[in-house]
Write a structure and sequence with these properties.
Shape: globular
Number of domains: 1
CATH class: Mainly Beta
CATH architecture: Beta Barrel
CATH topology: Lipocalin
Strand content: over 45%
Radius of gyration: 14 Å
Strand order of the largest sheet: 4-3-2-1-9-8-7-6-5
Largest sheet: 9 strands, antiparallel
Oligomer: single chain
Order of helices and strands: HEHEEEEEEEE
């Protein structure tokens, strides 16, 4: 399983862009940092350092960063009352960030979940997002 995780990180770090900063031609929706709490799975809390959600027209991008290396891809968006989920799918795993919405504060709690497809294992951790 560790080999699969490391190979996925290699895929994530294949494109080097500014760490968790949305590109100039996009708007930053959220910038989220890993803030694990008791009960969070270690693999999910240490997989990424930060996640940014960026928008460009009708497209939503998820930018994931680990150790200063980042990658970005189109994300699907699922809006519901009280929250919005952003999902990025790769052949090896799915990444999902569910952000609590409707809070007046600029800081929102979020839940990052990753699903390792080959092993059919899911893990999640707490993130804190800033608008």
């Amino acid at each position: 399983m560790k080999t699969m995780i490391f190979s996925s990180l290699m895929v994530l770090s294949s494109i080097s862009v500014a760490a968790a900063t949305c590109p100039q031609n996009t708007q930053t929706v959220y910038t989220c940092k890993s803030t694990p709490t008791a009960g969070d799975e270690e693999v999910a809390s240490t997989m990424l350092d930060s996640i940014s959600i960026c928008s460009k027209g009708n497209e939503t991008l998820m930018l994931v960063e680990k150790n200063g290396e980042a990658d970005m891809a189109l994300a699907t968006v699922d809006m519901r009352m009280g929250g919005t989920s952003y999902t990025l799918k790769t052949p090896e795993m799915d990444f999902s960030l569910s952000v609590v919405t409707g809070i007046l504060d600029k800081t929102s709690p979020a839940r990052f979940t990753l699903h390792l497809k080959a092993a059919n294992i899911s893990a999640s951790s707490t993130y804190t997002c800033v608008r």
